[in-house]
Amino acid sequence: MSTKIYFIALLLILPFIFTCSDNIVSECEVCTDEQQTGTFTSFSDIQQNIFNNSCVSCHSGSSPSGGLDLSEGAAYDNLVNVASTGSNLQRVVPFNSSASYLFKVLDGTDAPLMPPGARLSQARIDSVKSWINRGAAND
Ligand code: HEC
Q: Which residue's CA is the closest to the ligand 1 atom numbered 8?
């Protein structure tokens, strides 16, 4: 076969290659949605998927924002049954998300929204809420 035929065959195959890669992209979007609709049940899931991605840029280091270090290994001890600096609420009250300042800042209705100006997806906020309401275990 001449190289011409190979070239024509390649041209014919190209659209299918692009169609396939479109499918791969949309499959990954489905994965992300699945993750966002409720697989963040343990504290380590929340740490990995929420705090590490959306919070530690401000909440880590030698003078973390709000005096709150959310980096891995430090976050739990700085949250559960610890008084907040910006309100007279505790940051996390086990079994009680509505008394927990952490939930209030994620919700942003009567506390400064976190992350500032970029509300998390409702599924992510709900993951933190139900982790608190299940007892805020270090799991
Ligand atoms: C761009 C920087 C920035 C990011 C990102 C950010 N925060 Fe904040 N956070 C602040 C600042 C600044 C404060 C201090 C209060 C204020 O001035 O609004 C604060 C305060 C807080 C407080 C109150 C602490 C206390 O004891 O009063 C909590 C809880 C909090 N943030 C949680 C989070 C969480 C959870 C995330 C990620 C989902 C996050 N923040 C992302 C800057 C940030």
A: 114
Q: Which of 35-39, 74-78, 107-111, 133-137 has the lowest mean pLDDT?
A: 35-39
- pLDDT digit string (tens) for 7-38? 666 566 655 555 544 444 445 555 554 455 55
- Residue written as tokens 């966002």? 36
| Per-residue pLDDT at 4 | 77
Nearest-CA residue for ligand 1 atom 27 is 86
Is the pLDDT at 76 greater than 80? The verdict is yes
Please list every protein residue whose CB sits less than 6 Å from any atom of ligand 1.
Answer: 50, 54-55, 57-59, 65-68, 84-87, 91, 101-102, 105, 112, 114-116, 120
* Between residues 53 and 26, the one the model is more confident about: 53
Please give the Cα distance from 68 to 85 (Å, whole number).
9
Query: Among 131, 19, 18, 34, which residue's Cα sits nearest to residue 75?
Result: 131
